[in-house]
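Hello forum,

I keep getting stuck at the same step: I have a sequence, I want structure tokens, and every attempt I make locally crashes halfway through. Rather than fight my setup again tonight, could one of you with a working pipeline run this one for me? It's a single chain of 388 residues.
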Amino acid sequence: MGEQSTMKVLAPQAAIPKISRRAMLVGFAVIGASLALSGCSNQKGFAASALPNGELGRQLNVYSWGDYEDPANISDFQDSSDVRVQLDSFGSNEELIAKLAATRGTSGYDVVVPTGLYIPQMVANGLLQPLDHSRIPNMANLDPTYTNQVWDPGNQHSIPKAWGTTGYVYDTTVIKDELSSWQDFLTAAETTASGKTAVLEDAWEVVAIYLAAHNIDMNSMDATALDAAEEYLVGTLAKSIRAFNSNVVTSGIPQGTFALMQSFNGDARQGMLAASDPERWKFVFPTPTANLWMDNWSLATGAQHPDAAYAFINHMMTPEAALREVEYIGYHTGIKDLKEAALADDMELPDLVFPSQEVLDRLKTAVLNDGQERRVEILNRMQAKAGA
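Reply #2:
Ran it on my machine without issues. Output:
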């Protein structure tokens, strides 16, 4: 996984064995994977002459997660604007931050795609520039549910690109009980699914299972709460865990190699779409709460092509582009009425992409705080105990 890979994705989604963006978030690195995408589209884009500041230039450099933009949308923007998009991919927020910090405004990147909880850190270190909302009129297409998040009040430095949540999927032929909560997950992992359970390779998410199951704030820094989490996760749960792997769900479902898997909603959907018997599996948006994560469009400090950057972000927020994005990556992009458009387009398994308002109302966002180091230690101890 540490080796360099290059991905050029021009095929339809159904023909591609996809690598999950969220799996890449927690350890799967694709370093320096550059894509210069071109192609044709049946849908018309906007006229370049109608864009802010007239002439956009001939180049735009985007730094994003691997396989995280529909190639047809990139091609459509290129064709309609005459701007060549150079799309490079990173494998973690840490990699993105390190690249921007090391170059101090000379990275050459214009548009970057950080995850929300990292944005305060990036702003504090001068890695992102404030956005001029007047140059992104399609912000009016955003559902207010996904704007003005705690990590960036007023969307001063970021605009929603895609969001998802964390839950779990289970094999109903192995686990006969109806599961609905994080406590149900823990009970099944210790019993019916012991030795056939996978969790994410993400310290915050794994510790959050215990905290949420016990109605403790998932972002808690309380030493007593984290001590209790460590005692249970290392002393009890670890021996039931077969894998700490955030990409396992996309293969584990079609291959039937696990009975219970913590996963991100869009990744579970990918696995179920690839399975010959998807009805065998059930995804749970667990009670009482779970993580709401969001990736965002931002402008890097020192961006050399700001006109093209604003035009590109604006283009990706049209209803037509948003529909193609959600069908390609399997995650909601935050655009209004996207669910209705996807249903009208016969999108498969839409309930995994568009959870109910009841689910949305109980989701919480992760926060990077002084408890993170302790969470990493807990995960490391769990992995050591599981492998012992």
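Residues 372-387 form the longest helix (16 residues). If your local run keeps crashing, start a new thread with the error log.
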